[in-house]
Structures are given as C-alpha cells and as structure tokens.
Amino acid sequence: MKVTSFKSKVFLLIITSIITINANAQNEPFNCVYNAYLFQYNDVYAVNLASGTSLLVAEDITENSINASAYNNVDGYLWGFLKNEPKTLIRIGNDFSTNKFTINSIPDDAIFSFVGDINVDGIYHYKVSKSIYKVDLNPNSDNYLEFIESFELTQNINVHDWAFNVNDNNLYTVEKNSNHLYRINTETKVMTDLGIVPILIGNDYTYGAVYFDVDGNLYVSANQTGTIYRIKNVHNITTNGYIDSNLFAYGPASASNDGARCPSAPVPDEDCSNGKDDDGDGLIDCDDPACSGVESCPTITLTTSANKGGLESNNRLSQKITARNYLRSKTNYDFDSKKAPTFKPSNKIYLGQKTMVGIEDFIPYDGVKNTEAKITTPSDLINLTNAKKIFSVDYVNTQQQTVASILTMETENGVYEHTKYICDRLLGAEILGINTFYINDEMFIKTTIKSPSGEIEHVISFAVSDNGSGYDVESHWNLDKYTQNISYYNYQVWSNSVDDLYRLTSKILEMFSNVKPITSYKNSTPPYVYVKSGNYKNGKLTLNIVNTNNATNIKIKGGLRASETSDTETIDSDIEIDSYNTKIEFEAKSLFDFGFRIEGNNGGTPDDVFMADGAWGVDASAKNTEVISFDVSPQEDIITDGSYMVERGINLSAKTTEYVSVYKAFTPRFNAIDLQEYNTLKLNLKGTGKLSIVIMKEDVQHWEDQHKYTVELTNETTTKEILLSDFKNSHNESIKMSNVTMMVFVLTNENIGTEEYKSVSLENIEFKQAENLSNNNITFNQQVQINPNPIKTNTTISYYSNINSNYELSIFDITGKRINMMTGNTQLGNNNINYNKTNEENGVYVFKLKITNGQSYTGKLIFSN
C-alpha cells in the first residue's frame, strides 16, 4: 500500500506539472485574514464586512470569470472555477497571481459551477443542479487535485453561494425567493430546512456571496442592493427554531457576485450603546446598520417629506431658499401630510396608454406595502429652481408617518440643479455610507444620509431623457456629468428601507419601459473619497473625510465668498491623509458660501460639496415700499469665545408707507437650532426710528405670537446687550431659545399710510452667556469706593486704573440678572463713575467693573428710599 500510494502521488505530481500554468512564481497564500473577498467577473474586491466598504484590489486576474470561489483553510489560498474553461480550477495567492489546474477526473456533467466552498479538511464542495461534487484540495492528501465523489441533495434548492461553518463543518446557504436557511451535513448527506430568515422576509434577491466568521455567524450579501445581513450562531439553530438575524452593513452590489472568506477570522462588531466606533467604520451606535433593531436602536426611522425637499444650499439658491422659508413662516404656512390629498394616478401607463404622459404618470401609487401615497408637491420650487414642472408624493403608513418619498421635476436645457446626494453635510447632515444598487443589471449609486434632525434615509437620484425612439437613463454623483442642453424627467427617491427604495426605483424604470424601451444607461461610479460631514462655526471649517481606497493625498479645489455680495475667492489645496477617517480643519475666516470638489490621488469619481450660510434678505412686500440700498458686509471680527455669531452685517435704506424688514435664517434649510446655552443678545446698531427684533421659533405657528423686543435707533452706532428673557410674546411670556429658526428686524412707520424714510445698520450680532453673579460667590475688592452706599438717588464709584483705557460697568440683581450696563473712558490714575438710580427697587445689588486691560472689581450696591 505504501508503494502504491507513493506511485500514485508521483503520478499525480507528473500530471500536475503538465497541466498547471504558473502565472507568477511568487504566488504565496493569504492565510487567515479579516477581509472577505468578492469576485465580480474576473475582478477582486476586498470587503470589510463591518463597514460594508469595498476596495478593488485586483483587476482582470484571469481572462475568464471566476465563480464558486472559496477559501482553503488547509493551504491558505483562494480557489474557484474558471468559466469557459471546463474542469479548470484556479488558485489565487495573496498578490492575486494565479495558478490553473485542469482536473480531468471531474465528471463530464460537472465541469463548472457557480456555487462552492471548501471545508476545514480542504475538500472542495460545489453544486451542479441537484448534486454536490467533491474535489480534494488538501495538498497533504494522497488524492490532491482529484475528484472524490458526488451525492444528490434531497431537493433542488435555488441558491447562488454557500459556506462552511468551522463550528460544525456543515454547509449553510439561503435560498432565493423562499429566503429559507438550509444546513447540509456533507458527511451524512442530510439537508435540513431551518426555516425562513426573519430579516429577509419579502425579499426577492439573489444571495451571491455568503461568508462565515469564527463565531458561526453567517453573512449573506444581496447582489441587487449590496445589503449584508447577519444570521447569528447558525450551528445552534434547530428546525423551525428561533433565527436571530439583522441587517448588518451596506456593501457593494453587483450583477455577478461570489464571495470567499476565512471562516476562522472574527468580524469586528459594534457595541450599540457605548458612544464609540467599535468596528472602525466611522459609525457610532445606532448610526451603524449593525445596530438596527439591537438594544434601543430602531429597526427603521421615519423620513423627511418631499414637501421640504428639492433644494440645496448652493450660492445661487441660498437667498431664494431663505426667502421661501421666511414667507412660509410669515404667512403661517404649515404643511400637514395628514390632510394632503391621496394620489390617484391617471392609469395611462398601467392601462398601456403610451401617449400624452406627464411626470405624475411615472409615479407608482402602490410602491410601498401598507402605505398610502399622498400628494406633497412643493409648488413654490417652480420660481426658485430650473424646474418647469414639479410633482411629489409621500408614502404614509397607517400611523400617518412618512416612510418614503418621490420628488420628480421636469426640466429643459439640462438636469435639475440639485441632487439629494449633495446634502447639507456642512450644516448638520451626514453621509453614513455610499454604496450601489443593481437594477436591470445596471449600477446606480445609493447613499445613506442622516439629516440634521436625525432621520436616516436611503437615497437614489437619476434622470430620464426621451431620445425619440426610447429613453436614456443617467445617474451621476456629479451634476456636470449629465448630458447638457436636453430635457429631463428628474427623480429623487428616498426611503427608510433599502428594499423599498429598490422597489420604488425599479417600478419607476419599469413604468418608463412600458411606454418606450430604455435604450441606454449612462451611470457613474460613486466617489471613493468623500466628505462624510463637516461644520463651520465662528471662522473655522472642519471636514470629516472618508477614504475607502487608501488614498494618501486629496485635492480640494473650489471657491468661497465672504458675503452675499462679495467676489469669489479661489481655493486650491493639496492635503495628505493616512487613514480611513480623517479630520481636516481650515481657518476660513468669514464665510457665506463655499463650493468645492474633493478628489483622492488614487482616482475615481470626485465628491462635490456645497455650503451656504442662511442668507440675509429683505422683505419689501408691504405696500408702497421701495428699497433704496441693501448691502451685506463680510464679518470682520471672528468671535471664538463660546458665543454664537449671526454672521455678516447689513445696511438697509428704504422708503415705505407701512414697514420694511430684513431677516436672517440661522441655517439655509431653515432647520431649528438650540441656543439655550446663551442668555444675552449683543449687537452694534444704528438707524432711524424704532426697530423690532423678532426671534422666530419653529413651534410657534403664528407670526403674531413670535417673541419680540423693540429698541430705539440713533444716528450713532451703539452697542446693545439685551437679555433674552426680555424677548416677550403677545402673552408677555419670555422666550425659550430651543428650536429657533430665524431673526427678523422690522422697521415700522410711526404713521401708517404716510411715506417715511427708514434705515438700519447691524453689525457683530452674537448670542452670548453673560456672567451670572450670585451673592454667595462674591469676592469684594477694597480698591473701589462707593459713596454714598446705601443709595437713594445717585452714587459715585471711585477706582484706580494703571492705564488709559475703557470700562464696562454692569449691575446685577440677586438672581444674577443684569439690569443695567454703562460704558465709558478710563484715564491713568483715579477715576469716578457717577451712577444714577433709575428703576431699581430697594435691596442689595452687585456691580462688576471691568477695565479692558484686565482689571476687574466687584462690589455691593444697596438701594433704599
């Protein structure tokens, strides 16, 4: 037997030397690595299962496609079948060089397969029709590179990949359509139906890549959407027992998927409640898809309405966006989806009518299960954008909550000028991930966005043009990639469910193809390096960069404007990066508008980012109102001491018989912000007449109930500090600075109906926290003398200054509320301040005297009759 075995092995080696083609003599094994490897035709992607991100690591490694890929635990290589090369397996090393092995002992009815994996003993198991075939790939075996046996499954299952679990050495797979999980014991040849996987219920996807980790968790990737699902500890699942499954990550979609991974390697997991990024994907706790439905994280969230969509804060639109939202607030506009009319399609397309169709005819009314489509068209976009026609619907569930939306615009001479991909990432929104869909075997970019108010939405944007004989479909990240000077039907589709997004988009394209054939797709790849989020505050711009293709350098090129009326300043910068997540900070000084393109040195689609601050605007809608001049000046002084700046100043002059006003939104999208940490409004102002300052709140529906404060303007610029508690509504209630949206400055005629000249100048507007003094924490300075004290009518405060400077005297009551403030000049030496009692009630007060050289004095004042 030993001699026979030896001869057999020698013979095998001789045969192998004849039929093996060495593509690279340096071919070395992978051994057990963390990455999963995804084969798409003859290209190889390294996939991080925790984040879903993929990196193209090798292209065209063979002439033909690779299928039934598998990791061999014994030799550390990747293996697979070569399409169009019968009975030929390929071995892939860690440098992606290859060796081919033609195995003549493979039966003629099993010369190729799409489904295969290798068990812990190095035996390759691949599926053809209803049977499993085995090939020995253990280099230590006497039967190395020999066909061993085959056996027939008890039923033919429609599967596209399977994988061995190292915990029990059984095969596991998920069937298309039924979404049932199967266990196959290849020793006993028993196949067990473990039941339907809960997270997959209702799906109709091809699961072309499946992987295991060391804990026996099965990861299932859907070809069409790229979504990666996790089924936990499958070796412990009993027939019709509980199957613990959840959405895990959003990975790359493909028309041809096949996966391989070392099943003994762990997969990093996210702790969903510790406030940290545990798995290195840049997502924390509930933002990570792996936390969907785990602990306190919701399975899905609600989405924003299409009535609020369709706009981006770029420089051309920013002022119009602010005007739109100001007028909506002033006229008490309140869109209520519960009262919106139900969408009832004309059925032209459903009934096969192929003429006289409009944008509303390509909206599926039944696109999301258990919802009703409501018409939510934001008609006021017509005058703001390049849209000729607009139509939108929200899909509202039985709890009257929006779970998906479609916004469509008809444009001429070019694509619609906004895409939801380019969201307000510098104003609170975040991109949680950029992946792909495959619809009709064509790739579309799918983005997951978290809005400033917390909604998580999956988004697709595309446009359709009519070429006469059919339709052309385009989907690009960059708007300048769309074909120029033609008419489009533009679509922005978003949902809280990847599956509903896929179905809605597929249905729209199907409706177009029912009218005319879709003759071409012109779609771009997503960016590999992009801005996840950012922030601009008080002169500093921060960008959080995601780098998915190991770029070492990025180029940022664009332009910024310091104010609405400033010229554009060009920005061109090269920056080194060295990690998946990189934070970059710029000293941007004053900034109104910033648009730039960012591109990594490893190529790929660049990312476009736009930001505009909430714009200043003029309301001259009152009868007989004429604006003489209106200028916006750049912010000269950048405040960085913890205050919140309302950036830039304005100068307005006008004639009116009623009123004229200027307004400034805190954000360009009119999102509410929280300023409760501040108690004082400080600003420089001058002008004519009385100025009403209105701070608008999102939860106050009527203009008349907003909180106001009125000041008397003079011809000289004065600095005014106003306690926010002095802003009162019509019920004399003080404002609470949560969910505030805008400031409005109103100049009203003293004599309505008579033309009056009005002017106002505003500068250095900031919200700040004034010092809150308490009698329990006062250290009194004996270098200040107050005479008399107690005070009946007036007193003199005497102090010494060591320089010529300025002073600021503040008076506080016992609660810490500032009730008065004086400023003036200080000379070197002894100084006196005469203070006259005004409306102070009898009692103990505290003063604080500050000199601009840093001197500070504190003391008590006692007022009496």
UniProtKB/TrEMBL annotation:
Protein known as: Secretion system C-terminal sorting domain-containing protein
InterPro entries: DUF6923, Secre_tail
Keywords carried by this UniProt record: Signal
Segments forming domain DUF6923: 50-263
Signal peptide: 1-25
Pfam families for the chain: DUF6923 (PF21959), Por_Secre_tail (PF18962)
Ranges of residues in domain Secretion system C-terminal sorting: 786-862
Naturally occurring in which organism (per UniProt): Wenyingzhuangia fucanilytica
